[in-house]
Sequence to fold (127 residues):
Amino acid sequence: DLPKPDAAEPPPPDTLWIFKLSTKLYSISHSLAVFLVIFGLIFLIRRRPIWEMLGWMLHILIDIPTHSYKFYPTPFLWPLSQWKFDGLSWGAAWFMILNYSTLGAVYYTLWRRRKRQTDSIKISNFH
Fold:
């Protein structure tokens, strides 16, 4: 049995190979240093910034305060430093309720705005 996210600590290096692999991949994919290097390389290759990549950076910035030492604290300075911020656990019930409620409210607002626009277009085309 795998422990629940808010009950687990980062796995020690001598555990199962899958935990070692996932910890290494998490370090690479959640590092602002790695992001900047890859963003810079793609900028040099394409000769322009690929702004969609900023979603990756935003994900890292959101993960920093929403991961505690108990479960995958975000190694945002890797490989320059192993320091991690002990944030709030996203696995806490109150946080999940707040998160999904906010997402639902944003989705509903966008849906209503879109519906009003399409209704307005239908009315103007009718006349």
The radius of gyration is 20 Å. The chain has a mean pLDDT of 87. Residues 33 and 82 are 12 Å apart (CA to CA).
